[in-house]
Design brief:
4 domains, 7-stranded antiparallel β-sheet, Elongation Factor Tu (Ef-tu), domain 3, globular, mainly beta, Pectate Lyase C-like, Jelly Rolls
């Protein structure tokens, strides 16, 4: 018998096996891309049989174990395979995914079991991973597929690579489909290193560099448990943004000189960035001193930039814009950028107990690390550091944690030259779009770069948020069922009626997916936006860190239900024994103080309860020009004591040089300065 699955993208159905086969499930389509469905494998002694969807003639369908393709066929073709992994992925190459028909057979295949910890050597054991510039992807993915099979039996597997430079190309990479929070959504993602469906797998790079070519997703850790990466530097063959040194400002023009590593094209008198094989015109520049410090403009970090230009000799381009009018001068370095975010360097998705030891990101085509719907993440050392001769690293946040749980620990890492934050931890809240009945609502993902991934699943608790005041309702709800209507809308059936006063225009977040955070002994310097950003009710500790020369605030406690819809009020924050040295040298979003407590509250005067609570700032050193040490909106239980504060006049003051600016706050205890 073939058991039919009908899972159109607009009807977020979940297939359940009969009671006597309860371990057999198709994973919730909430957690899939529009072209991919994930299948939990109940046993490696079971055969999966079925047919591809009945689509248009010539459409291609594939089944992956994550690292390797196990089957490829056309519309309506049948398949039979014995999985060698914990998860399978059913992928439509040409159309939205629908109407797969599958069944598990109960036949037993007596395979040899491997029960002892195993090490696979990258230069031996039949796994010749090339380090000569040719494509290392196929060989390394073969090792990952082997590790995935062995991990099913619970033993640990180590992939050990000789130190070297390994290159990865999109032409050979598996094409997977999934949603990535806070990024441009792609139908299909070529994935260089799919660490997918793994359990108890360690990869030792031994100081190696992984170089990724073109537009691709470098590393994906998905549906995996206890994956560890050690001693790896992640880079691209060409930077996504370009850096040009100002060599001349004359006659209303500015001439920039570019090192050979930066790729560009001039067409019809316009400049285009081509670092990942695409063609994008820059829309803004960010200015750095030659030694990597940001230019302290006191204005917004991004400055508008025209792409109109002409060649001016070897590696030089003359732009029809006067940089002197922007407060810039010869010898400074401009980063030419736009706002696309096609691919982060690393994604953690439904990944538990992930550890990164001395993993360094040199650049990215989006964020460096984005984690979503993942639990327990540890980062030791590494970080985002500039390649030789460069002033910027990644194109957005260094690390970003969306709808995660458990504990996030970042210790001893260095983050510099990012376009955005070193760390951003938040929930994603959805707007209540329509109340169908007291126990039935539709909810909407509000930001186009934060759609599609599972914010809620059946059985999880719901925190209700009043949209106008950001107040959290004391009564929690529970989702009985969650159905995806399309990429941006969910249908949610509730276990109990909506609380009184909650309705359309208010928001909901998942009350079961909040992480606690330790950010300890890290250095954050010379980045565009904020140093750190936290929006979680679980305990947050920032200790023994250095914040030097961030364009905006060193620490931001945020929260909103009207912009990015990034929520999760803070209820326990400790900021202890840190150094804050000349941050807030520009003006960026929500950055009015070195420590900025800035939730976006539409009607703060109507609040009965403040948004952020219990914030202790103690034993820190502030070396700063005359800007607010604290700018706070809707905070209660704010303590600032026993801090060493040294004011100077190195940069222009803000808010009249006041050390504290408070708006709609409750109880505070602030030391006299």
């Amino acid at each position: 018998m073939i058991r039919e699955l009908i899972i159109p993208i607009a009807a977020m159905a979940v297939w359940q096996a009969p009671a006597n086969e309860a371990e057999e499930t198709i994973m919730n389509e909430l957690g899939s891309g529009r072209r991919m469905l994930a299948v939990n494998v109940p046993s490696q002694d079971r055969e999966l049989r079925g047919r591809a969807p009945q689509g248009k003639a010539g459409e291609t369908y594939r089944i992956y174990n994550g690292a390797e393709m196990l089957w490829e066929g056309k519309s309506g073709e049948s398949f039979s395979l014995i999985p060698n992994s914990r998860v399978l992925y059913l992928v439509s190459a040409d159309n939205d995914n629908k109407n797969w028909q599958v069944e598990w057979k109960h036949e037993v295949h007596n395979r040899a079991r491997e029960t002892k910890p195993t090490t696979l050597k990258g230069g031996a054991d039949g796994y010749k991973v090339p380090s000569d510039g040719t494509d290392a992807g196929p060989a390394l993915r073969k090792m990952l597929a082997r590790a995935g099979y062995m991990g099913y039996e619970l033993q640990s597997t180590t992939i050990d690579l000789p130190q070297g430079e390994y290159h990865f190309y999109p032409s050979s990479a598996p094409l997977l489909s999934y949603y990535i929070s806070n990024h441009d959504q792609q139908d299909m993602q070529p994935v260089g290193l799919p660490l997918v469906g793994l359990k108890n797998v360690k990869i030792n790079g031994n100081g190696s560099t992984f170089v990724f070519h073109g537009a691709m997703q470098p590393i994906l850790v998905m549906d995996s448990t206890n994956v560890e990466l050690n001693g790896i530097t992640i880079a691209h063959d060409a930077p996504y943004y370009n850096e040009g040194k100002i060599v001349e400002i004359a006659d209303g023009t500015t001439t920039l000189e570019f090192a050979p590593q930066f790729r560009y094209r001039i067409e019809n008198g316009r400049y285009y960035l081509t670092g990942n094989g695409e063609k994008k015109a820059p829309t803004a520049v960010l200015a750095f001193e030659a030694d990597g410090r940001m230019v302290a403009t006191g204005k917004a970090g991004d400055m508008p930039w025209t792409a109109k230009c002409e060649p001016a000799g070897a590696n030089r381009v003359r732009f029809y814009i006067n940089a002197a009018e922007m407060g810039l001068k010869e010898g400074q370095v401009l980063v030419l950028r736009h706002y696309g975010r096609p691919h982060p360097a690393m994604v953690l998705y439904r990944a538990n107990d992930t550890v990164l030891n001395e993993v360094v990101f040199r650049d990215s085509q989006g964020m460096a690390l984005i984690a979503q719907r993942s639990r327990n993440i540890t980062i030791n050392g590494g970080g985002c550091t500039c390649a030789e001769g460069r002033v910027y690293t990644v194109s957005a946040d260094a690390t970003h944690f969306s709808n995660c749980a458990g504990h996030i620990r970042v210790q001893g890492a260095k983050y510099e030259g990012m376009m955005d934050d070193a760390i951003n931890v938040h929930s994603t809240c959805l707007s209540i779009d329509k109340v169908i009945s007291p126990t039935e609502i539709t909810a909407r993902y509000m930001h186009p770069q934060a759609v599609g991934f599972e914010v809620f699943e059946a059985g999880e608790r719901i925190q209700y948020i009043r949209g106008a005041t950001l107040e959290n309702h004391p009564e929690l709800g529970k989702a009985v069922s969650v159905k995806k209507l399309n990429e941006t809308h969910l249908h949610i059936r509730l276990a109990a009626p909506l609380p009184e006063g909650i309705g359309e225009g208010d928001a909901i977040e998942n009350a079961d997916w909040y992480p606690s955070v330790d950010f300890i002994g890290c250095t954050v310097q010379h980045n565009r936006a904020r140093g750190t950003l936290f929006t979680t009710p679980k305990p947050v500790l920032v200790k023994d860190c250095k914040f030097i020369g961030s364009g905006g605030s060193a620490i931001l406690l945020a929260g909103d239900a009207q912009g990015w819809y990034e929520s999760g009020r803070c209820l326990d924050v400790k900021i202890i024994n840190n150094l804050f040295e000349h941050n807030l040298i520009q003006r960026y979003q929500f950055t009015e103080g070195i420590i900025s407590i800035y939730p976006m509250v539409k009607q703060p005067a109507q609040q009965q309860e403040r948004y952020h609570k219990n914030i202790l700032i103690e034993g820190n050193t502030f070396i700063t020009h005359r800007v607010p040490l604290i700018y706070a909106i809707s905070a209660d239980g704010l303590i600032f004591r026993n801090n060493n504060v040294q004011f100077d006049d190195k940069h222009a003051p803000m808010h009249g040089g006041k050390p504290y600016v408070l708006r709609h706050c409750g109880k505070t205890d602030l030391q006299t300065l």
